[in-house]
Each structure stands twice: as C-alpha cells, then as structure tokens.
Amino acid sequence: MDTIITQTEQLRSFISEITFKEIDEITEDTLLFEEGVFDSLGFLSLISFISENFGIEVENDELNEENFQSIKSVISFISKKKNVLE
Amino acid sequence: MSQKANFSRDLIKLKNIEQVISEITERLQNDVFNILRRKGAIVGISGGIDSSVTLALAVKALGADRVIGIIMPENDSSDDSKNLALQLAEKFGVKTIEENMTPALEGFGCYKRRDEAVRSVIPKFNPETDKFKIEIKQSILNMKLPPVFNATVYFADETTESKMLPMKAYLQIVAASNFKQRSRMSMLYYHAEANHFAVIGTPNKHEVKQGFFVKYGDGGADIMPIGHLYKTQVYELAEFLEVPKTIIDRTPTTDTYPAEQTQEDFFYQLPFETMDILWYGWENGYSAEEVAKEMGYSPEEISNVFINFERKMKTTDYLRMPPIHFSK
C-alpha cells in the first residue's frame, strides 16, 4: 500500500512539473489525455519517467488507454509489469 | 442559409482547377512584385510533388526566367530526388543551381549528433554500414493516445532491430535532423538575396496544419502558395500543370533519414488520400458517424482519428507562431 501511495505521489509530482499544472489539480483519476493534461511529448516523458524510475520497459503494444489513461491505470500497469518480472 | 452537403469523398475535389491556378498565380505575381518588391522567385526543388507544383505555379505567375530552382542534396538524399528535380526544371525551362548540403551538415554535427542518439538506443548501429529511420508503429485508427516513435535499424547483414525511442534520444534525433531543413532555408535565402528574389515555400495544407514542417526550416519562406491545399488537390494541380508523370507517380517520402521512409509511416499513419478526406470532415464539422459511413471505418475509429487531429493542431501551434514581440 505504501508503495502505491509513494508511486502515486511521484507520478503526480512529475506530471505537475512537466505540464506546469498545480499538483492539486492532478489526482489519481485525472484523465491525462482526455482532459488535455498531456500532449505527445508529455506522453513520451511519462514513458521515460516510468522506465527510469520503476525499472520497467514499455512495449509498443502496451501503449493503450487501459495502461495510461490516468495515474491509477499507470500504477496498475507498473504493478502488472513488476509481477511478470518477479 | 446554405445547407451543408452530405459527406462524400468528392467534396474535396477542386471544382474548377483552372480558376484555382489563376487565383494562385495572380496572387503570387502581386505578392512577389508589389508586396515584397522582389524581381523573381527561388524555389527549393526535391523531386517531390509539393515543390514541383510550387515551381510550376511560380513559372506560370512570373515567367521561367524569373524563377530559379535550387537542388540541395545531402548524404541521405536518394539519387531519384535530384534526377526528378532536374527533369522538372527542364520541363518548365527553369535554371537550376545544385548545392551539396553535406559539408554544411557535417559542420553542424547533424549526422554525428543524430547517429549518437540512435546508438544510445540501438548500440550495434553502425552508420557506415547500416541504415535507419524513425517511424510510428501504432495505428491512428485504434489509438486515443498520442503516437510514439520507434527507431528502426536495417543492419548490413539484412537483420533489423526496432526500439521505442525514449524522450532524450527522440528529441536529439529530431533536433539534429532539423539542421537539414534549416540549412536548406539559409541556402535558399542566400540565392534569394543574391538575386533580389523572394523565397517561395512548398508546404501543403496538411504539413502546415498538422505541424509536419520545421520551424525556420521548410516553414521559413516569404510566400506559401499551396499552404491552403490538401495533398489530393496538389496532385490535381500537378496533372493540370503537366508536372512530369514520374514525379506524380512517386510515393511521397521524407527523404530525411538514411533508410527509405514514406510520409505515411513517418508522420501521417494513413495514406494521404484518406487523411485528406478525414481532415476535411473533421475541419468542416461532420460527425464521426457520417464520415465513418462513407469511408468504411467504424465511428470509433474515426473518432480516434479526430482526437488525433485536434491534438496535433493544438500541440503544433508553437510551430506556426511568429516570434513574440514585446510592446511597451
């Protein structure tokens, strides 16, 4: 649970930093693309961020809404990937 | 009040090509001579359809003796590009000047910086023997998220390796490659200033609206005479203006990376004929359902394409913005 909270905070802080949005405006349910938080470079930064900080490699066929539409879905994607690695 | 026509593929076709050409040439003539007060036009020609039509329009507007075609090959240009550009110039009776851009690009470190970024992702890449390109693997039709680029290397032993590009490598490849368009722009302005001519730009409507151009590169010119035309319409003009058939029949390429690459797999993700009509539908407020019915896609697929169009327009605003001038 602690890990999930930490990961959520890391992602919120990262997204706030690269999108110039106030951190309070970003929740784990914010729709990152539908609500226009991210553009294409933002998406690329997010992929690089989770690869560097959570040690997972993202594949082309994993670039979908289920895995990336919100912080919650990103956390769940990271957790699924880590389970496969372990 | 006029009623909007039912959506169909034919909506995009030019109703009166002759009139369109005459409007463009009259405007070009006025802009070059009276607004810019220049004696003629410089056009960078690559053997592609857009620069070919632009040159043909410039000749019609100003006369062949007032137009110079500049051919600017570099290390990664295909031989076809130069040959087709020469064919075009001969057909329209235009003087050409060839400028080899490779030494300037080497001076900028274009190839070195770009290859270094590719090697950071695919360490086995050897620019002396292997070729590479960057491409989008996802389909615009079933993706609500923005596209992500891959670097694909074609090794000399005929094997390939493709890797998703991380942010840093992607930005470095793009920034280094953009030296090509920007140094070409400098060369065009050299010839323009040396002759007291204007630079005529070649981007079409998609390139302008979707941001498929380099700011202060191919986006840097005095006039953009085909910037309001869809690629389909540029082809219609090409037929009418009798651009050589070898140019009309050639698949549009980027001619930017060492491996052969169509504009479709680099940027548009759809054939231009389809892209044009979908963009027309989106721009003119047709619903995803209406467009889907005519084009044989599902409404969801069309809706995904529309989302992508909107995103591209928004995220490329920066490219179309002039410098921000402060006033008191």
Please characterize this protein's 3D structure.
- The complex is a heterodimer of chains A (86) and B (328).
- Chain A has 86 residues and is mainly α.
- Helices cover 60% and strands 0% of the residues of chain A.
- Chain A has helices at 2-19, 40-54, 65-68, 71-85.
- Chain B is of the alpha/beta class and 328 residues long.
- Chain B starts with 16 loop residues before the first helix and ends in an 8-residue tail after the last helix.
- The model of chain B has no long low-confidence stretch (mean pLDDT 92).
- The interface between A and B is medium-sized, with 20 and 18 residues.
Separation, N- and C-terminal Cα atoms of chain A: 18 Å
What characteristic shape of chain B results from the CA principal axes?
Answer: globular
The H-level CATH homologous superfamily of chain A, spelled out, is ACP-like
Which percent range fits the helix content of chain A?
Answer: 55-70%
The ordered H/E elements of chain B are HEHEHEHHEEEHEHHHHHHHH
Gyration radius of chain A (Cα, Å) is 12 Å
Q: Structural class of the helices, strands and pairings of chain B?
A: alpha/beta
